[in-house]
Write a structure and sequence with these properties.
Helix content: over 70%
Radius of gyration: 36 Å
Strand content: under 5%
Number of helices: 2
Order of helices and strands: HH
């Protein structure tokens, strides 16, 4: 009785291990299929292109803001009159 119990338990554990191993192997094989790899690469490229375009837009916004600041400083210096530290052209 005890021997048959342990034999059945061993067979059950072995069958369970085999099923789990085959499922794991199938999932790993699906991960490296060319279609899966191509889909992941396409997604990565789309993410990268989105990041690059967002960075470019941020750079343009920063550039426009700095340009406005410089124009405001230039206008302020023109309104104040000639700078006494600058040599005159006369």
């Amino acid at each position: 009785m005890r021997r048959s119990f342990w034999a059945a338990l061993g067979l059950g554990a072995g069958a369970t291990g085999a099923v789990l191993a085959s499922r794991w192997a199938r999932r790993q094989a699906n991960k490296v299929k060319p279609t899966t790899l191509a889909r992941e690469a396409k997604g990565s490229l789309l993410d990268l292109s989105k990041l690059v375009s967002e960075s470019i837009e941020e750079g343009k916004r920063a550039m426009a803001e700095r340009e406005r600041e410089l124009h405001a400083e230039l206008e302020a210096s023109r309104d104040d009159g000639p700078d006494p530290d600058e040599p005159s052209a006369a």
